[in-house]
Amino acid sequence: MKTTVKNLKNEQVGEIELDDAVFGLPARADLLARMVNWQLAKRRQGSHKTKGISEISGTTKKPWKQKGTGRARQGSLRSPQFRGGAVIFGPVVRSHEHDLTKKVRKLALKTALSVKAAEGKLIILDDARAETHKTKALVEQFGALGLNSVLIIDGANLDENFVRAAGNIPHVDVLPEQGANVYDILRRDTLVLTRNAVEQLEARLK
């Protein structure tokens, strides 16, 4: 599939052939959902914690005798039915990670790229370089390209001025090719790839 290549001034500077094996796959919402869930589960700290009865500070004395009081039998004031007592089946510190095979993760990334291409929300840039680290000039260039919510993926080495200038613009993310992931692609409206990023992604995913 052929598409035009633009520069940051919104001028057409050539064409590029996108590999259908990477950018031409059918949409699979189930696959994308599995991948996003996998990514977000890995991010979770899992530091939530409640105290069990063995962790509660307090007396170990039996509150009252077993029989003869007319009250329900009790063995500990640290039991969950008492104020300040334990929590039953509460959360414990754990990892929320789960397995997802490499083939599925690779297919999900190709599917996300294909979805953006099919929706017409994929822009190919000649390169992502800025002459200055000032944000104002880059905001004007993004305005000419019609970019509001955008993920920009460049090659392995990012231009320092471009990264610094884009860092102050809301809803704009800049990643190297090796950091390309399904969640960040889907959370932004438009996907922008440089020529280098296209070549490296196709080499990695084909």
Automatic annotation (TrEMBL):
Positions of region (Disordered): 47-78
Superkingdom of origin organism: Bacteria
Gene Ontology CC terms, in alphabetical order: ribonucleoprotein complex; ribosome
InterPro entries: Ribosomal_uL4, Ribosomal_uL4-like, Ribosomal_uL4_dom_sf
RNA-binding recorded as keyword: yes
Signal sequence coordinates: none
Any single GO BP term: translation
Record bears the keyword Cell wall biogenesis/degradation: no
UniProt keywords, alphabetically: Ribonucleoprotein, Ribosomal protein, RNA-binding, rRNA-binding
Gene Ontology molecular-function annotations: rRNA binding; structural constituent of ribosome
Family under the similarity heading: Belongs to the universal ribosomal protein uL4 family.
Described function: Forms part of the polypeptide exit tunnel. One of the primary rRNA binding proteins, this protein initially binds near the 5'-end of the 23S rRNA. It is important during the early stages of 50S assembly. It makes multiple contacts with different domains of the 23S rRNA in the assembled 50S subunit and ribosome.
Subunit structure: Part of the 50S ribosomal subunit.
Protein name: Large ribosomal subunit protein uL4
Taxonomic source organism: Nitrospirillum viridazoti CBAmc
UniProt gene name: rplD
